[in-house]
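Hi R.,

Here's the chain you asked about this morning:
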Amino acid sequence: MTSLGIQRLLGAVFIGLGGWALLFPAYVERIGFTSDHFMGTAASAVLIGCFGAQACLCGIVIALSRFRPITFMVFGLAGSIPFFIFNFYFVFVVKMFSNWMLLDFVGNAAILALCLTGYRKLKAEEESGEELAAGN
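And here is the predicted structure, written out as tokens:
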């Protein structure tokens, strides 16, 4: 797979999980929050839907942008490590989120893995001149 394919797969992670929150916000809230923190209001559905829309927008930008190796590296680290901490804190310490939020952890692990792979792949492509041949 080329670095562009990895980049588009990265965008698909955001579009997939974000689209789920955008299209089914009440369901995402119901399974994502513990009963003590579940609100189930129209306002909470709007907020989750907005979160999903932002994730979809991010996925579209990722899929259509031109990444450099440093883009993969910075996005992978900044786009996953803070969220690992966030997930751990709100799932295991505060216990606001249910174990279903571990899906977000899996998504963040995928983001980190794809970005590290994309970084290595794009560096290799640039060194071998494949980038110009592939039309990236």
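One quick note: The chain has seven helices and no strands.

Cheers,
M.
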